[in-house]
Specification:
Blueprint (H helix, E strand, L loop, with lengths): L10 E5 L2 E9 L7 H11 E2 L4 E5 L16 E7 L4 E2 L18 H11 L19 E5 L6 H6 L25 E5 H8 L3 E4 L5 E4 L27 H16 L16 H7 L3 H6 L11
Parallel strand pairs: 1-5
Antiparallel strand pairs: 1-2, 3-6, 4-5, 7-8, 9-10
Length: 289
């Protein structure tokens, strides 16, 4: 069973030249500033000229500031035709990878972080494993063929090129330690980190874990640590989250628990069934500089 990511969105953006045409929506849990709003609209909209975003009720024009974005309807104006980008986000679908999971990745993430770097929950049993914590890949492990094809290994500086069955996708720079509930939200693009706004945590759905507006723990991003998390990969994940949540009904939230069901039928009949069943990912990925 699946749902989309459109529920609870309380900010709506319309085409100023066609006020009935919805361009996008988002959930304001309190952390999204006016500057964040302009950044996110820059991800989902294609505009031939600068845009002007105006609150429909108050007439306030959004500026590049740290003021919280007010909820409500906004009109987006531009000297030209505004289009919603058709770039697809990369679904995170459980499957095998080229190199399989690397035990060193889990040990390295646990040793570096020692806590959920988003919620702050401490792993009291470290360095031993716990079912309450997950060493989470930022760029999904199951899309390793896409990672290799598009050269995302260029983001990694703490590993040589793949040796044997070890891939750069399993670098600690492509991972963070998360509590299990945060891990699920992160892999569904419902929680992300904006490295261009002081590593602020943004929740794109209901903030059930109380993490919206928190700052990614510095333990995973110490400047002189060669295994620090990679900003470019965090930026990639944030872009994917914006694409998944701000346009239309949002991307489907994919179910991981098939207990008591015909798993093959659920996979084939559900959204993204082709990707899940055939492990083919039809996604257009952004190349972060």
């Amino acid at each position: 069973m699946t749902s989309n990511q459109s529920h609870f969105r309380n900010v709506h953006f319309y085409d100023g030249s066609n006020p009935g045409l919805l361009l996008g929506r988002l959930v304001q849990n309190g952390s999204v500033t006016e500057a964040n709003c302009l950044q996110m609209l820059g991800i989902i909209l294609l505009a031939p000229a600068p845009i002007r975003v105006q609150h429909r009720s108050s007439g306030h024009v959004v500026v590049n500031s740290d003021s919280p974005l007010a909820v409500g309807a906004y009109d987006v104006y531009c000297d030209g035709v505004i289009q919603v980008i058709n770039e697809l986000c990369l679904h995170r679908i459980g499957s095998f990878s080229v190199s399989r999971r690397d035990e060193a990745f889990h040990k390295g993430i646990l040793a570096r972080d020692g806590k959920c770097v988003i919620s702050g929950m401490v792993h009291t049993r470290a360095p031993f494993k716990s079912t309450d914590f997950v060493a989470t890949h930022i760029f999904p492990l199951q899309a390793e063929n896409v990672w290799i094809e598009l050269g995302y290994g260029r983001c990694i500086t703490d590993m040589d090129n793949a040796v044997g069955k070890t891939s750069k996708i399993n670098s600690c720079q492509n991972g963070i330690l998360l509590s299990r509930n945060i891990h699920h939200a992160f892999t569904q693009y419902l929680v992300s980190v904006n490295p261009d706004d002081n590593y602020k945590v943004v929740v794109f759905g209901l903030d059930l874990n109380g993490v919206d507006g928190k700052i990614l723990d510095p333990v995973c991003r110490k400047p002189h640590d060669p295994h620090r998390v990679c900003d470019q990969l965090l930026r990639w994940h944030f872009r994917q989250s914006v694409l998944a949540n701000m346009r239309g009904a949002g991307e489907p939230i994919l179910e991981h628990d098939f207990a008591g069901k015909d798993m093959i039928k659920e996979i084939r009949d559900g959204p993204c069934g082709k990707e899940k069943f055939e492990l083919k990912l039809s996604a257009i990925l952004c190349r972060d500089g």
